[in-house]
Amino acid sequence: MTRPFKVSICLPTCNRPELIVQCIDSCLAQTHANIEIVIGDDSKDDRTQRLMAAQYQHDPRIRYVKNEPSLGQARNVASLFARASGDKILLIHDDDYLAEDGVERLVSLWDSHPGLDVAFADQYEVDHAGHVDGAVSAKLNADFHRTKSTEGLQKVPGRTGLIQMFPNNGWLANAELVKRVSYKEQYGTCCDFVFGVELCLAAKQIYYLNEYVSYYRKTDVSISASTRGSTNAAPVSAYAFVSSLTLERQVEPARTVALRRLVPIVVSVYAKNAAPFKALRIAFRHLSAYNYGLNARLYYHLMLISRSMLSSRAGRQPDAPTTRSAREESRTETVL
Predict the structure, then answer these.
(1) Where does the signal sequence lie (predicted)?
(2) What is the number of other CB atoms lying within 10 angstroms of the CB of residue 16?
(3) Residue 332 pLDDT
């Protein structure tokens, strides 16, 4: 029987009152009844504040705060963790939402694994209107190593965060551990990834459940969109963070997996931002990310670097690539 743990659902929001209702309603509909919903509103206007007063003011399960002034992504989430009073913490972003029994299925894992620190499961991918695409959802989870063959307790917990198996939200973890790790402002738009890595490195037991418990909404507007393609982009910060980690021997191979994903993105970003020598150093320091020269992407990046060098000598910024390869490149540069 599922233990009566109190679960604090932490919900950061910013300027999305048209989406947050579905998120809040999915939290209130949970079959696991012992919950609180802790909301931190970083919006620049009062639309969400007025919505909360009109629809949810009298629900004792909701603890809403309007941040004045705004805290920013990392400090907002960290403040939610600090305010949480539950035994377990679950994070869900304002444009995403939970399956009705999502919390219950995650909490139930503590029945069979009392020493568990962290549990997570699959995410559906939905469009802005909330339509689920089954095939796209399956690919999303497979791309992040969430498949039936990997279900269960993770043999090397620290590996889970580094290889990005751990999702950005919809997870459940012991409150004490979450509060201790928390979000850190200095990592900017990379704070989600850094938190996931540090949480998994600190955890002793992590369980992956091969079932859908949450819905991840794919939108064109996100916190990271304003920095995408710049040297402030999340993958650039993630690369620096992963490169600087001191890891135990059993976790070290996961760093290589992480860098294979990050290095090509970072090289491309620097080449397109007039930093060709930095791009070249990173590319040749991590040739394994390009399958030691057997990956055509390396030669495309060398072309970008060459163009950047020539443009720098001419005293101008490189023009945006217009080749078909460049268009393909832009589609592969997913933000963490």
Answers:
(1) none
(2) 18
(3) 36
Written as one string, the DSSP assignment of 51-88 is HHHHHTTT-TTEEEEE-SS---HHHHHHHHHHH--SSE
DSSP string, 299-332: HHHHHHHHHHHHHHHTTSPPPPP-SHHHHHHHHH
Percentages of the chain per state (helix, strand, coil), in multiples of 5: 50, 15, 35
Domains and CATH numbers, the chain: 7-223 (3.90.550.10), 226-332 (no CATH)
Contact 251, 162 (CB under 8 A): yes
214: which strand partners? 98, 123
pLDDT digits (tens, 9 = 90+) for 275-328: 999 999 999 999 999 999 999 999 999 999 999 999 877 765 554 444 434 333
Report the b/e string of 92-101 with b at 16+ CB within 10 A.
bbbbbbbbee
Euclidean distance between CA atoms 166 and 151, whole angstroms: 12
205, burial (CB in 10 Å: exposed 0-12, middle 13-18, buried 19+): middle
Please determine, for residue 60, whether its predicted confidence score (pLDDT) is greater than 50: yes
- Distance (Å, rounded) from C-alpha 241 to C-alpha 252? 14
d(CA 147, CA 141): 7
Nearest-angstrom CA–CA distance, 50 and 5: 32
| Bridging pattern class, strands 35-41 and 206-217 | unpaired
Is 120 within 8 Å of 170 (Cβ atoms)? Answer: yes
CA distance 327 to 162: 28
Question: Residue written as tokens 């972003």?
Answer: 93
Cα(165)–Cα(118) distance, rounded to whole angstroms? 13
Q: Residue 201: which H helix or E strand, with range?
A: helix 191-202
Of the candidates 224, 304, 306, the one whose C-alpha atom is nearest the C-alpha of residue 267 is 304
Report pTM. Answer: 0.89
Could you give the CA distance from residue 245 to residue 254 in angstroms, rounded to a whole number? 11
CA 308 to CA 300: how far, in whole Å? 12
